[in-house]
């Protein structure tokens, strides 16, 4: 018995496919994190809508936007997952650890066995969204015949490159045909292989602190051993930064730069610089020299020493950086934490910049930044 012959559990007609993707969190409500996923959804819905279908009265597809936590939207998605014919998953590096994506897949797999001509597990369609770091695309999902670029770069790269438009359209055509075949029960009912969960090999994210050396501290009577981990303020802020890092992807390491740590620059990092180190004539020059030699994935953040708000100086001495040309990377201008109790926004932005610069340099395919929020509709 099919949905055309009986009322569906949700009381609505199903759609041909649901596009599932990872939902990263952000504190910046002015950007649309799913801009590129939404664009691919609209293109894929266009392709499926233009193909011959046995059930043209079905909706073409559905997509859950990021940043739409309303109960009404969630209920609409749950109803769609109860009847949707094909579950299309954009396999990214963080897809397997995304709670929203896991919930969507579980809801799809709970469909009754009699709802469609094939079991839910036979109507899964994984798509290579981005190539995992250090791994080939074929290890994540099956390659698409005649489109080697798909396995080399992933669908997001093809969707963004003007020179790859033909390959992009061939991938969409292949996916569209696959959706129709799975939804309408054409061909042999072979189980669709779901990629195994990749091993959890996480990169280190470094949170480094740079405090005033004990011999230059005007407080004078503090013992070096008691100040080995830096001032309490820096430790507290380092803890806040650590809590904001994506633990599903990164292992967090806290280090004290003045204690002789020499590995800074090999991993994405936030460098917390105490205000007095930055403004002191005895240490300021060497600190600027250090920052000028670091790659852009090490993001400096100047922390106020007291309770008074920290203001950016008129001339911070950042104009000339002789060490910059030696590293071949663009050094990052320090950001200012105006007060110790600043909201998490500046911390999240600083972490995001470090991760983005690190990904741009080290991943096989660069990650594209989010676009300004649009008013696109989630359904086709």
List the helices and strands and how they pair.
Elements: E1 15-20, E2 31-32, H1 35-49, E3 59-63, H2 71-81, E4 86-91, H3 99-109, E5 124-128, H4 148-153, H5 155-160, H6 165-184, E6 203-210, H7 232-244, E7 250-256, E8 269-274, H8 275-279, H9 281-293, E9 298-303, H10 324-327, E10 335-336, H11 344-362, E11 371-372
Parallel strand pairs: 1-3, 1-4, 4-5, 6-7, 6-8, 8-9, 9-10
Antiparallel strand pairs: 2-11
Helix pairs in contact: 1-6
Contiguous runs where pLDDT drops below 50 for at least 5 residues = 1-10, 218-230, 312-329, 374-380
Biggest β-sheet strands, sense, barrel: 5 strands, parallel
Radius of gyration: 25 Å
Quote the CATH topology of the largest domain.
Rossmann fold
Separation of the first and last Cα atoms: 26 Å
Give helix % range: 25-40%
Total helical elements: 11
Class by alpha and beta content: alpha/beta
What's the total count of β strands?
11
Main sheet: which strands, in order across?
Answer: 7-6-8-9-10
- Quote the average pLDDT: 76
Shape: elongated
Percent of residues in β-strands:
5-15%
Task: Note down, in words, how this protein is organized.
This protein has 380 residues and is an alpha/beta fold. It folds into two domains: 170 residues, Rossmann fold, CATH 3.40.50; 128 residues, Rossmann fold (3-Layer(aba) Sandwich), CATH 3.40.50. It is 32% helix and 14% strand. It contains eleven helices and eleven strands. The strands form three sheets. The chain has a five-stranded parallel sheet with strand order 7-6-8-9-10. It has a four-stranded parallel sheet with strand order 3-1-4-5, sandwiched between helices. A two-stranded antiparallel ribbon has the order 2-11. Helix 1 crosses helix 6.
